[in-house]
């Protein structure tokens, strides 16, 4: 006996896009492996496994890109900081060198003045 609720032909509703309906119908035909117009758990399971495998690959790629981006930012911060520290150290060294030279010149001048005063 034939099931009165089962239709052999699928019909698109009047208020729905025919192109979208055909696309959905193609997807369901691909999912219906035995042709009984019913999508079984096994049919969905195969697709879900592939879907989640693809999702995991996408998530992994996003994480790797994020990690690489963070590494680049960290490297740039390190380089900027290293440059600033080196520049500051050089300036500090030059200022101290100038101070030592002034002190040394002052001491030498004082010593020279002292020696000259002894000779006179």
Please give a structural write-up:
Helices cover 78% and strands 0% of the residues. The protein is mainly alpha-helical and 120 residues long. The protein has one domain (18-119).
Give a quick summary of the entry.
The protein is mainly α and 120 residues long.
Give the count of helical stretches.
Answer: 2
Alpha carbon gap, first and last residue = 141 Å
Number of strands: 0
Oligomer: single chain
Taking the sheet with the most strands, its summary is: none
How helical, in percent, are the residues?
Answer: over 70%
Q: Which class do the helix and strand fractions yield?
A: mainly alpha
What average pLDDT do the residues reach?
A: 81
Question: What is the helix/strand order?
Answer: HH
Number of structurally distinct domains: 1
In percent terms, what proportion of residues is strand?
under 5%
Poorly predicted runs: 1-5
Radius of gyration: 42 Å
What sort of overall outline do the alpha carbons produce when their principal axes are compared? rod-shaped
Question: What are its keywords?
Answer:
single chain; mainly alpha; 2 helices; 78% helix
What is this structure's SSE topology?
Layout: H1 18-31, H2 41-119
